[in-house]
Amino acid sequence: MFRLARSETNFYADCGLDRVSERRKDSAWVAERLFHAETRFVPLWRSRNYVDPKAARAILLSAEEHKALPPAREEPVFLGLAGEIAYFACDLSHIDAGEEGPALPSALSGQATFLDLRLLGPRLARSEGGLLAYARGMLTWHRRHRFCGQCGAPTRPTEGGHVRVCTAEACKMEQFPRTDPAVIMLVTHGDACLLGNNPRFPPGMYSTLAGFVEPGETLEAAVAREVFEEAGCRVRNVAYHSSQPWPFPTSLMLGFYAEAESDALAVNQEELRDARWFRRDWIKANAREFHEQDAPFRLPRQDSIARRLIDDWLKGEV
Length: 318
Ligand SMILES: [Zn+2]
Description:
Blueprint: H1 27-34, E1 40-45, E2 48-52, E3 57-58, H2 63-67, E4 77-82, E5 85-91, E6 113-115, H3 117-120, H4 126-144, E7 155-158, E8 163-166, E9 174-175, E10 180-189, E11 192-197, E12 209-212, H5 219-231, E13 235-246, E14 251-260, E15 274-279, H6 280-286, H7 305-314
The chain binds zinc ion.
The site of zinc ion has 8 residues, from loops.
């Protein structure tokens, strides 16, 4: 069985905080942390994180800078502790602003802007990438679950923003932050692997196959089903590799390797523009980076688990 060393987490998987999930149930403790002078805030505006793109780093707000902002719709979401310093995510989506997002009264705001996290991705330090992904995932969930799915009444956040509860007395249904499990798999056959280009990818970018897990389905059954649906290929020996939070908007990617029973393919043209077997040596000699837009064969982004699965296989580590 393949086993990952603790140091080999995927990008976006490590936020550098202790989530202290027991303590956030204590609303007095959360309120005390929220108003503490040392507390730091991770701002988001309409799913975009606050960053300095030139220096490739996250820009956080101090308690004083946060206090100067226009009042928010809901309290910030508690993320966790670094030592004794609390981190909260605050949603500024209610502030009207142009494409650039609101200009914050931060000392650093001259260099900072609101950007889609994927535009900076692997250029960020890993712990910053993980922190921004976690904040984005939490606030996306809040924005999409303001009403109860059972009775339609408004919901309100509790437990530091890790639960939403229905405000209707007769209902009070609780909702928890959701992640949608998706399997992502590198299928191999001897010294070749199966990579595809789907219509959502830029031309020339080839990656692993992937798909969402359905209710009542195991992860390994989802791997086999997706590979067969997309490429007409039966697999065996489905083996887990690692997982990656992918809050674009709400996925948890579960990475696998699988062996093809034969090299015969029947590519589903509605799902994929192209899928083919690529030999290990050919990939090593010909692959270009994701950002090399004119290259005829590019691998996925370096911060993706798809790339991790491909790279580990190229290195012969699986
Ligand atoms: Zn309800």
